[in-house]
Amino acid sequence: MQHQRWLWPCLITALVMTSLLSVSIGPLHISPTTSFNAMLNWASGQELASVAPHEQLVINNVRLPRTLLALAVGAMLAQCGAVMQGLFRNPLADPGIIGVSSGAALGAAVCIVLFPNGGEYLVAFSAFVAGLVTTLIVYRLAASPSGTSVVLLLLSGVAVAALAGAGIGVLTYMADDMALRDLTLWQMGSIAGAQWHYVVLSLLALAVISWQFNHSAKALNALLLGESEARHLGLDVDKLKLKLIVLCAIGVGIAVAATGIIGFIGLVVPHLVRMIVGPDHRLLLPLSAILGAAILMVADIGARSIVAPSELPVGLVTALLGAPFFIILLLKQRNKLV
Amino acid sequence: MLRNLELQSMQKINTTSVQASISQASSTAQQSGQDTVISIENVSVHIGNKTVLNAINLDIKPGQVTALLGPNGAGKSTLLKSLCQEVSLSSGMISVLGKPLAQWDRSQLAKSLAVLPQHASLTFPFKVHEVVQMGLYPLTISQHQGHELVDEQLKKVALSALKHRSYPTLSGGEKQRVQLARVLTQLAQAQRSPILLLDEPTSALDLAQQHRVLELAQSLAHDHNYCVVVVLHDLNQACRYADRLVVLEQGEVVSDGEPHRALTADIIEKVWHYTPTLVIDPKSKLPLIF
C-alpha cells in the first residue's frame, strides 16, 4: 500500500507534463508556458493570457486535438488490454495480438471504401461492430470453462488477423486514391490527422468505458478465480462477459476508427502497472488508463520528432517499443506455453 | 517459529476460533434446530444417453458433515454440482433453506451457500488477503468491516502471517486454506445455516493438511451449525470426520446413515468391488477400513 501514495501523484504529474510537452513540441516551436496559456485561453473561451494568434491557432486546431486524441486512445487501449487479459484470464491477451484491432480496421475499411459518403460516425460504428464480432469469434475459439488456451488464443488471433488482412487487401485493391491513403494510414496507426469530432467521440467513449470498467473491477477480480467460482460468488458471469466484450469493442473500435491500428499499448501498459501495484483491477484499470495515455503521447512526440520535419506513424513507434517487451514476456512464460 | 505459531493456532480452531462473524448465523441456525437445509427430491440427471443420477432423495441437515462416497463415476461430483446449479436437472427438485434452488437470486444464494473448489489457480499474482477479499463480493459491508472480516478469516485458517504473500508462491495446502478463508468470508452474512460444499478438498494436500481441513469443516458443522457436504474418496477420513455417509453407485444411493451403519464390509464389497478388512476402532467406535 506504501507505493500507492506516491504512485497516483507521480502518474498524474507525468500525464500533465507529457500533455504540455505534446502541445509544445512540433515543427513550430512553442514554449511550454505559451502552450499552457494557450490551453487556458482555449478552455475558458476568452483571452486570459497573451498568446500570438498563429500559435493559438496551431494549438487549437492541431496540437490540442492531437494530444487529447492520444490521451483518449492510449487510455482506452490500455484499459481494454487490461480487461481482456482479465476476461481471458491470460496475460498475453491484447486487442492487437488477438486480432481485434485488425477486425475493427476491416470494419472501418469496408465503410471507407464501399460507403465513401457514409461519414466518420458510420466508420466508427462499423469499426465497433467488426471489433465486437472479432472479439466474440476469438473468445469462442479460445475459451473453455477452465480458462483460455494461450496457443488457441494466439492462433485464433493470427487466423482472424490474416482474414482481416486479406479483406483489407481486397478493399485496398478496389480503393481509389483518397480511400487508399486513409487505409494505409489506419494500418500503420497515426494520430497526425486528429480532428475534433474524433476527439469528442473518443473522450466520450473513454468516459463511458472507464466508468463501466471501474464499476466491474471487483467482479473482474472475482472472475479471475474461474467462471464456476465466480458464479458461486453470486456473479452473473455471462452478463459480465458480454458487457466487458461490448465495452472493449467500443473502446478498440473507436480507437481504431480514429487512429488506426496502434499495437502493444494494450499489452505492455497493464503489465507495467501490474508489476508495481499487483493485479487488483480496482487499481490496475485507472492506473493503466493514465500510463497508457502518457505512453501514447510520448510515442506520438517521438513519432513527430525522430524524423522531423517528416513524421513516423505512431503505430510503428509503439511496435518498436512494444515488440521487444512482448518477446521478453514470451521468453519468461515459455515454460508455461509449451 | 512463525510456522509453529500458525500450527498451534490452527490446532486451537476446534475449540476457540470461529466466533464473531458467524455468531449471527449460528444463533439463528441453532433456533432452527435440525431443520432440513437441503432437500433433494427425486432428482435425476442425464448427460446424453447416460443416467448420471437416478431418482435421488436426500434431506441434508445443518450441524452435520455429510460425506458423499462412491467409486469414480458414481455421481458424487454431479450431485454436488447439481446443488450449486452447475448441472441442470433432468427431473426432480432441489430446495435450499426451504426455497427451490431455481427461485433463488444468485447473489442472495451466494451469501448462504459456498463451494470450496478442488484446485484454484490464479493467472495473476494476487496477494493472499486479496484472494480472501474476493469472498466479500456478495456481501453488503463497509470497507473497514471487510478488512476486519478478512483478517478474522485468515486467523481462522492460521494464515495471518502470510497475509501479504503472493498466492502463487504458496504450497498446495496453504492455497487450499486461503480458498477456505475466502468461502468462509463469503458465508459471514448467512442468515440461517450456512452451507459449505467441498469437492474432494483434500486431494492435493499432504496428510497433516488433509486432517486440518477436515477438522475445520467438522468444527464449523458441530460448533457453528454449518451444513457441510463433502465429496471424499478416503473412506477412513469419511468415517472419522463425517456424521453421515451417503454411498452412491451408478447414480443411486445404496447406503445412507451414520458411518458404522452406512459403511459395512458388504457395502464396500458391493460398491467398490474390493474385499476390505474392516475393524471397529475400540476408542472411537468408528469403522477402520484396510
Structural features:
heterodimer; A: 338 residues; mainly alpha; two-stranded antiparallel sheet; 78% helix; B: 290 residues; alpha/beta; Rossmann fold; six-stranded mixed beta sheet; 11 helices; 38% helix; disordered N terminus; transmembrane helix (chain A); cell membrane (chain A); transmembrane (chain A)
Any overview of this molecule?
The complex is a heterodimer of chains A (338) and B (290). Chain A is mostly helical and 338 residues long. Chain A has a single domain, classed as ABC transporter involved in vitamin B12 uptake, BtuC. Helix content of chain A is 78%, strand content 1%. The model of chain A has no long low-confidence stretch (mean pLDDT 84). Chain B has a single domain (2-289), classed as Rossmann fold. Chain B contains eleven helices and twelve strands. In chain B, a hairpin with a 6-residue loop joins β11 (278-280) and β12. The model of chain B is unreliable at 1-33 (pLDDT under 50). Chain A: This is Iron ABC transporter permease. Chain A: It is found in: Cell membrane.
